[in-house]
Design a protein that fits this description.
Elements (H helix, E strand, L loop, with lengths): L1 E2 L5 E2 L11 E5 L3 E11 L3 E6 L4 E3 L4 E4 L11 E2 L1
């Protein structure tokens, strides 16, 4: 599968800057605004949502918040 939306970055390709506002995506919860807090044990990345929730090792894609509204989920082609 490949991503059609160019702004989404696969977490396995690049990690974002720590504490820089961004949008992150995980299939089970969708798109959320937050920050990347760094790595926890090996390659488990930690994302903190603006409303207090957090994900560890589940985020698959991210993009920096550049003042845009909530972006659509990544779109895949088969």
């Amino acid at each position: 599968m490949t991503i059609l939306k160019s702004k989404w970055i696969k977490i396995e390709d690049e990690t974002p800057d720590v504490d820089r506002p961004l949008w992150y995506f995980f299939d089970m919860v969708g798109v959320h605004k937050g920050v990347f807090r760094g790595l926890y044990e090996a390659h488990m990345h930690v994302f903190i949502g603006h409303h207090g929730g957090w994900l560890t090792g589940d985020v698959t894609h991210w993009q920096y918040d550049e003042g845009q509204g909530k972006p659509d989920e990544p779109v895949y082609s088969k």
